[in-house]
């Protein structure tokens, strides 16, 4: 299983703090937002590689962050270095964009990463390394989580299907700003809506997904078949309509860092943990 980190956004809501610096690498205490996430995911035996998809503006910063003497920076959709901090290799992919106005969007960034990984596999003559031969854990890079992704991976293995996360959200106002799902008593997803004005449940969907390899053909052709491109939830919504998916109820909370206020709140609350 490959861990695909979607980190190609420009975090415009954080103003000057992220004008020339990627939000996932902002410090929370002695670690970074993304570093905390990778520390957990790296311990999952199923994971064999971390793949960070970023933009051309921030790729050198990610590259420096993970660089060892064995790596070398590069640009234009190529692959960069491997970190010595984690047991699993860390690959950075540059999507070539340089502004918020020209960004690919989260779904196209995922597809771009799969294409680059496939090209790497073909050039190495190692067909087992093809992106399409692995299950995918796909995560947004701007959350602090108070549970382990191991639980999510275990749930997906038990169900044998692609999966999304969910959590109960009592606020109708907040449900109107996120993805909302309807599930049966086995947590199979029956329906998903993005930002519904009249939510059909209180199950909200955070940006963490597992796509099984048997569903990757659907993933690859999603955009050409009408899937939205900007938010990662667009793909989950598309997949719910085309394959069987289950939802794992988060066992603990998360802290979404989406603004200057929430970033400074995270430092105050969690900077010493």
Fold topology:
Layout: E1 2-6, E2 27-28, E3 31-32, H1 33-41, E4 49-54, H2 59-66, E5 90-94, H3 106-124, E6 136-140, E7 143-145, H4 149-159, E8 162-168, H5 172-175, E9 179-183, E10 189-194, E11 203-205, E12 208-211, H6 216-220, H7 232-240, E13 245-249, E14 254-256, H8 260-270
Parallel strand pairs: 1-4, 1-6, 4-5, 8-13
Antiparallel strand pairs: 2-3, 6-12, 7-14, 8-11, 8-12, 9-10, 9-11
Mean pLDDT, to the nearest integer, reads 89
Largest sheet: 10 strands, mixed
- DSSP strand tally: 14
Unreliable spans: 68-83
Instruction: Determine the structural class based on helices, strands and strand pairing.
Output: alpha/beta
Strand content: 15-25%
Helix content: 25-40%
Helical stretch tally = 8
Distance from N terminus to C terminus (CA atoms, Å) equals 29 Å
Shape: globular
**Element order: H for helix, E for strand:** EEEHEHEHEEHEHEEEEHHEEH
Radius of gyration: 18 Å
What does this structure look like?
With 273 residues, the chain is of the alpha/beta class. 28% of the residues lie in helices and 22% in strands. The chain contains eight helices and 14 strands. The protein has helices at 33-41, 59-66, 106-124, 149-159, 172-175, 216-220, 232-240, 260-270, and strands at residues 2-6, 27-28, 31-32, 49-54, 90-94, 136-140, 143-145, 162-168, 179-183, 189-194, 203-205, 208-211, 245-249, 254-256. Strands 1, 4, 5, 6, 8, 9, 10, 11, 12 and 13 form a ten-stranded mixed β-sheet that branches. A two-stranded antiparallel ribbon has the order 2-3. Strands 7-14 form a two-stranded antiparallel sheet. The longest helix has 19 residues, at 106-124. The chain is globular. The protein starts with a strand and ends with a helix. Mean pLDDT is 89; it is low at 68-83.
């Amino acid at each position: 299983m490959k861990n695909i980190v979607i980190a190609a956004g420009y975090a415009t809501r954080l103003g000057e703090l992220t004008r020339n610096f990627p939000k996932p690498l902002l410090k929370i205490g002695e670690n970074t937002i993304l570093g905390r996430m990778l520390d957990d995911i790296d311990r999952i035996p199923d994971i064999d590689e971390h793949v960070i998809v970023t933009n051309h503006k921030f790729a050198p910063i990610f590259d420096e962050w993970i660089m060892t003497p064995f790596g070398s920076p590069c640009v234009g959709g190529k692959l960069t270095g491997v970190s010595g901090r984690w047991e699993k290799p860390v690959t950075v992919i540059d999507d070539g964009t340089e502004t918020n106005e020209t960004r690919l969007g989260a779904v196209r960034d995922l597809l771009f990463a799969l294409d680059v990984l496939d090209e790497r596999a073909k050039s190495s003559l190692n067909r087992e390394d093809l992106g399409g031969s692995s299950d995918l854990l796909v995560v947004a890079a701007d959350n602090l989580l108070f549970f382990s992704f191991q639980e999510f991976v275990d749930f997906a293995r038990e169900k044998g299907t692609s999966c999304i996360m969910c959590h109960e959200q009592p606020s109708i106002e907040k449900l109107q700003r996120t993805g909302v799902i309807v599930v049966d008593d086995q947590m199979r997803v029956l329906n998903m809506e993005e930002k519904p004005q009249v939510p059909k449940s209180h199950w909200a969907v955070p940006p963490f997904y597992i796509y099984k390899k048997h569903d990757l053909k659907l993933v690859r052709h999603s955009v050409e078949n009408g899937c939205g491109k900007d938010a990662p939830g667009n793909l989950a919504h598309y997949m719910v309509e085309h394959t069987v998916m289950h939802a794992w109820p988060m066992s603990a909370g998360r802290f979404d860092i989406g603004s200057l206020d929430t970033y400074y709140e995270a430092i105050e609350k969690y900077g010493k943990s």
